TrEMBL record:
Annotated protein name in UniProt: Phosphatidylethanolamine N-methyltransferase /phosphatidyl-N-methylethanolamine N-methyltransferase
Keyword check for Metal-binding: no
Boundaries of every Methyltransferase domain copy: 63-161
CDD domains linked to this entry: AdoMet_MTases
InterPro entries in the record: Methyltransf_25, SAM-dependent_MTases_sf
Length: 213
């Protein structure tokens, strides 16, 4: 075996170990706290590719992920961001936070609650956000919590900013999902939807702009 082949095999092994660690962390957190995670596995690369499209590629944008989990959306976001940008993840799960800090050193990880969004941004000297990308389990949240987080996300957005929310397509038809959809309609002037079928279950993207203040 050549040294190059040896190196190649080493890399494949490292990637497999990192993936395994990602799935273990995600699954363990989901088992301990199913309502907080709202999923059994991280979202697919197909979802991540679509989500990343809202990320500005010029200037010095600020992107905030609400509920980055093990970071399945984070690599795609990171790849698009120009130098000088900030990529902040606000994550409630302690195991997820440890995983992110170990595997995504280029991200600013805040161990906190999306419900404290404005206070957390203030603490980290952020006064406007160009993209909020959220994959917290919106449809499982009580009405007042949905409202409280959405209002803060809308307030944090820069004038040209975009707010993205992901939900499972079947969850959109539950009472919590319908309430969330209606709440988005009261919060944003523009809402575009997109479904990624290459995820189990399929994912519904809401891409929202121009908060109704
Ligand atoms: C469905 S998982 C999504 C994880 C990842 N972004 C993905 O797409 O695979 C939801 C994540 O949101 C986190 N979460 C739930 N409620 C939260 C909150 N109020 N604040 C911050 N993170 C929260 C969970 O711990 C979990 O990591």
């Amino acid at each position: 075996m050549t040294p190059q082949q040896d190196q190649q095999i080493g890399k494949v092994g490292q990637n497999a170990a990192s993936k395994l660690d990602e799935y273990r962390t995600f699954f363990q957190t989901a088992v301990r706290n199913p309502r907080m995670v709202g999923a059994a596995t991280p979202t697919s690369a197909a979802v991540a590719a679509t989500v990343a499209q809202v990320v500005p590629t010029t200037g010095t944008p600020v992107v905030v992920e609400l509920g980055p989990g093990t970071g399945s959306l984070s690599d795609g976001i990171h790849r698009r961001l120009p130098e000088g940008a900030r990529h902040v993840g606000i994550e409630l799960g302690e195991g997820m936070v440890e995983h992110l800090r170990a595997h995504k050193p280029w991200m600013e990880i805040v161990h906190g609650d999306a419900g404290d969004l404005l206070a957390l941004l203030d603490k980290h000297n952020i006064d406007r956000v160009d993209a909020v990308i959220s994959s917290i389990p919106w449809s499982l949240l009580p009405s007042d919590a949905q409202n409280h987080i959405l209002r803060q996300a809308a307030e944090a957005l820069a004038p040209q900013g975009a707010f993205t929310a992901l939900t499972y397509l079947p969850a959109d038809q539950t009472p919590g999902g319908r309430r969330f959809r209606a709440r988005l309609g009261h919060t944003f002037d523009e809402i575009i939807t997109h479904t990624t079928w290459r995820n189990i279950p399929p994912i519904l993207h809401y891409i929202c702009r121009r908060p109704l203040r």
